[in-house]
Structures are given as structure tokens and as C-alpha cells.
Amino acid sequence: MYDLDCKIIKGKWHKNKYKVIKPLGKGGIGNIYLAFNERRGFVALKISKSMLSITREYDNINKYKNKNFVPIVYELDDWEYKGETYYFFVMEYIKGYDLSKVINQSMSLKLKIKIFMIILGILEDINKEGLIYADMKWQNVMVDYDNQSIRFIDFGSLVPVGEVVKEYTPLYDRCSWGMGTRMADLGYQVFGAAVLLITMLTHPINKIDKKYIPEVFKILKKTGISGDILELLNKALYGEIKDCGTFLRELKKVHLNLENKKSSLNILLDIIIGVLVIALIIVATKIKSSIIISLL
Questions:
Q1: 3-state secondary structure string, the chain?
Q2: Domain segments of the chain as ranges
């Protein structure tokens, strides 16, 4: 992170002052801080030495300003400090936690799948604009507990389809696994999403290599993940699912089938329990009758 010993950032053009409270994280193009402004209250401030990168991310977020999965951006400005120019934008501070903290807590498979389906829907929305959200990872997915929604952060990794991916995390990167190129295409998005789901379902992956994929599936099987989900993940990793929209529809089918199977099983169990109760009543009645007869 940049060593910002200065506690006050004042925009050169808008003249707004922001008191830096604490660092929130480090993105692909800069650092993010929790800050306070008298008019806006608590905000997130992203700062970088790259004017191009900051401006591009600001524009990317603005492009989706009517979508509830992106933070609200307030302003873009620059700041002179110790002879250097820094560029920053100010955005809504999301009160919540990233996906890693959610998954580390005890959570049912059903809820994990539902969260992932929301993520797939967001990715499909982005992809329809001709863009790929390249840096897909836990830390970039926030659970907003004020609005009860899933929000994406760090839009600096958005890449037009057909261009080379420059900002990525190796674990979710198809090329790092030896499973394809680092070209921004719909298959690249599906691969990263599939790895995200795998990490949601099991422990963190320790080795990034296509030779390790069979071992990953062995670990998943031990956790009791259904064969249908495993088959879908296998197709996603090996490029047999063309886009996130298809991935989402197929996952919904699998999820529905699993729910129907559970419902059928519950009905069957209810019937069995009902039959056993009736049988016990009959047996109890016969025993009671036998006792009465013997007493006579």
C-alpha cells in the first residue's frame, strides 16, 4: 500500500476534504481506504498513481450506476502530496463483509448455491455488455447487510471481450491452470466462476495445475457434493459450458432436481413414519385386548 502518513485528502478540483480512517484493502490498480466527509459521512476512497486506471474504473462503475450490484460513485479527483500526483475516486462505503468471511462460517450447501447463482446472474449481466470481469475472487464479492444484497467491488479488471486479461488472480485464471489462454472470452469467465464455486464448496485449493483437477474432484466427492453438481463443474472447467447464462440455467435445473428429490424423500419418509405409527397403534391395541381377555 502507499504509505499515506497524511490523514486528510483534499481534492484539487472539487475541493472536498476526506479524513482517512483506515485501509480497507488493495485492489488491482490502487488502494482503498475508509474515509469520512462531513457531507457524505463514511465513504470508500480508492487512490492510485495511475490516472488512466482510476478513470477507467470510475467510468466502468458509472456505466452500471442503475444496477444494485455496484457501489455508488460520488466523484473523481486528484490530489497533490509530497510532490507527487495521486488520482482517486470516492464511492459508497458498503457495510458488510466479503465472501470469504461468509463462506468460512457454517453455511448450508443450499445457501451457498443460491449465493453463487446470484453471482452468475451478475456476471451474465456484465458479459452482455461485451465485458469480462477478469479478477473474479472472494475478496471482490461483498455481502451488503444493510441492503441484503450481493455487491461487486473493484471494477478495474473489466476487460472488453477479445482483449488480453492483465489483472487477474492466479487461482481463478484459466491460463495459470494450463487450461487455456488469458484471452478475455466468455469461457474465461465461466472458468473463473467455476473455481469460485469450488472454493465455496470445499477447502482452499492448494495447487494450481490442471493435473491437480482430478484431486480437487476427489475432495469434493468426500464432502458429499452431488454427482450432478460435480458433472456441471467438470463441464465448466473443461470449456463445455459456453457462457455464464448457460451455467446459471444448468445450475438452476440441478438445484431444482435436488430439491425435488429431497421433497420426494421427505414424502416417502412421512409415509413410512405414518405406516409405522399405524402399525404400532394396531400392535398396542392387540396387546391391550389380550391383557383384558386374560384378566377376564
A1: CCCCCCCEEECCCCCCEEEEEEEEEECCCCEEEEEEECCCEEEEEEEECCHHHHHHHHHHHHHCCCCCCCCCEEEEEEEEECCEEEEEEEEECCCEEEHHHHHHCCCCHHHHHHHHHHHHHHHHHHHCCCEEECCCCHHHEEEECCCCEEEECCHHHEEECCCECCCCCHHHCCCCCCCCCCECCHHHHHHHHHHHHHHHHCCCCCCCCHHHHHHHHHHHHHCCCCHHHHHHHHHHHCCCCCCHHHHHHHHHHHHHHHHHHHHHHHHHHHHHHHHHHHHHHHHHHHHHHHHHHHHC
A2: 8-92, 96-253
CATH of segment(s) 8-92: 3.30.200.20
Band of residue 151 on the pLDDT scale cut at 50, 70, 90:
very high
pLDDT in tens, 206-252: 899 999 999 999 999 998 899 999 999 999 999 999 999 999 999 99
| C-beta separation of 226 from 258 below 8 A | yes
More confident residue, 105 or 226: 226
Instruction: Say what the pLDDT of residue 281 is.
Output: 57
- pLDDT: is 98 or 249 the higher one? 249
Q: How many CB atoms lie within 10 A of CB 183?
A: 16
8-92 and 96-253 share one fold: no
Structural fold of domain 96-253: Transferase(Phosphotransferase); domain 1 (1.10.510)
- For the residues 116-137, what does the mean pLDDT come to? 95
> For 5-16, how does the pLDDT look when each residue is reduced to its tens digit (9 = 90+)?
678 999 999 999
CA dihedral 134, 155, 64, 91 (to 10 degrees): 160
Widest pairwise Cα distance in the chain: 110
